[in-house]
Write a structure and sequence with these properties.
It is a single-pass type I membrane protein. By secondary structure, this protein is an all-beta fold.
Length: 170
């Protein structure tokens, strides 16, 4: 008939988190009560695909509690953002410049351009096991477009690279 808020108290019992809610005392025989619970649970990133809540309904007049379980799917969400920059932003080769085959000097292979990529987690959840694949066009037909010199990372990331990295050992 009417709606009223329950008074619920969280506590720890035998290493588990328990929420105890008083539904009313005394209760009339044959009374039917519908209870809606809203729970906010954090830190579920490593919980797997679902979390199970075990419910018990105890009455002082009944020796054994009624039990039920509710399984709720866990859906973690995180928004990733990739930012990139080239230093310098624009590069123009002089018309008189030519590739020097077999040279070990950097300037004979072109103008140095550094590409920096940053991968950011905008949340709300944490992420793990992320793979970022970058395809860099280093050939144009059979001509060298970009001579890939080195590849580095920061922040404890693992990195694997194309075998054509610095083939002339410049």
């Amino acid at each position: 008939q009417g709606q009223e808020k329950l008074s619920c108290n969280p506590k720890k019992e035998n290493g588990t988190h328990v929420v105890l809610c008083e539904l009313g005392n005394p209760m009339k025989a044959g009374a039917r009560i519908t209870v809606d619970l809203e729970l906010s649970v954090s830190g579920l990133e490593d919980m797997g695909e679902a979390i199970t809540f075990h419910l018990q309904l105890r009455s002082k007049n009944s020796p054994s509690p009624s039990k039920a379980s509710v399984t709720v799917p866990v859906e973690a969400a995180a928004e990733m953002e990739l930012r990139g920059n080239s230093l310098p932003a624009t590069t123009v080769l002089p018309t008189s410049w030519h590739w020097v085959e077999g040279s070990r000097r950097l300037e004979d292979h072109g103008i140095k351009v550094e590409h920096v990529y940053e991968l950011h987690n905008k949340g709300p959840g944490t992420v793990s096991g992320v793979t970022l694949s970058l395809a860099v066009p280093h050939l144009l037909g059979d001509q060298v477009l970009l001579y890939l010199l080195e590849l580095g990372t920061e922040g404890g990331l693992n990195c694997s690279h194309h075998p054509a990295l610095n083939p002339a050992q410049v």
